[in-house]
Write a structure and sequence with these properties.
Elements: H1 7-10, E1 16-19, E2 27-41, E3 47-55, E4 61-70, E5 89-102, E6 107-113, E7 141-144, E8 152-154, E9 157-158
Antiparallel strand pairs: 1-6, 2-5, 2-7, 2-8, 2-9, 3-4, 3-6
């Protein structure tokens, strides 16, 4: 994977961006990463994507890891189920494993979106079979951050 600056993508209205304060000391992250997301959608099916990004002091933002989950597979890969529109569901987005040293002065950034095409296949948000579906439905997503429905990233920090 060639590092590419994410700033143009992050400026889009359909990408939610969370950025830490600049690190006071270097931080090593090594191992499996995941994002726990509590979200609702207006659609019957949709995707949620997540990225971990290393933000340099000059503003350049480089993807470290990313992942996706199709809402219909939120409970596993064997029994896909559409979601109930507007109902909050828990999603675990696997960002696979990495090893990255976030240097002092850098920031950690998490991006949440519903698409990363062409990296991941499209979802038309209808709940119909994706291979034959031809109708698009706009999906409006709501990400939750309450104590009852927390959304967060799990980072394996090496001391």
């Amino acid at each position: 994977m060639e590092p590419t600056d994410q700033r143009e993508i992050e400026s889009r209205e359909d990408v939610l961006v969370y950025t830490s304060a600049p690190l006071k000391k270097a931080l090593e992250v090594t191992g499996p990463l995941k994002v726990i997301l509590h979200a609702a959608s207006t659609a019957k099916n949709t995707d949620f994507t997540a990225k971990l990004v290393d933000v340099h002091p000059d503003g350049q933002a480089f993807k470290v890891a990313d992942g996706i989950i199709r809402a219909s597979f939120r409970d596993g890969q064997t029994d896909p189920k559409n979601i109930v529109p507007e109902q909050i569901n828990k999603y675990e987005i696997d960002l696979w494993a990495t090893s990255n040293l976030f240097k002092k002065g850098h920031c950690l950034r998490v991006e949440i979106s519903s698409s990363s095409f062409p990296r991941f296949g499209r979802n038309l948000n209808t709940g119909n079979a994706p291979a034959t579906d031809t109708t698009w439905v706009k999906a409006t997503q709501t990400i939750h951050h309450s104590s009852e429905h927390p959304s967060y990233i799990v980072l394996p920090v090496i001391d």
